[in-house]
Amino acid sequence: MIVCSCNVLSDHDVRATMHSEGGPARNPGEVHRCLGCSRKCGRCMHTIKNIMNEALCGADHRHTGS
Asked: Which segments constitute the BFD-like [2Fe-2S]-binding domain (predicted)?
């Protein structure tokens, strides 16, 4: 799913930045920087944050065995 139409970023792109070699992205601004682009209109920021939170919650459940 495309989450940033200005930069054509998908939810898969966002998740990939959380496991990048240079260290995980910690906020939507870092996601854009990791992907070599910059925030334009800002409408995607809330969605990117939600995707990041969901990915972190999923990782926590895998580590705790829940």
From this structure: 2-54
Question: What is the number of domains present in the chain?
Answer: 1
- pLDDT tens per residue, range 11-29: 999 999 988 777 789 999 9
Token pair 């969605």 in the structure block, residue: 47
* Cβ density class 10-49: b for 16+ within 10 Å, e for less: ebebbbebbeeeeeebeebebbbebbeeebeeeebbebbe
Domain CATH number, residue 16: 1.10.10
Least Cα distance to 32 among 49, 14, 19, 15 occurs for: 14
Q: What is the pLDDT of residues 42-63, one digit of tens each?
A: 999 999 999 999 988 876 555 5
Report how far residue 57's alpha carbon sits from residue 32's, in angstroms, rounded to the nearest whole number: 21
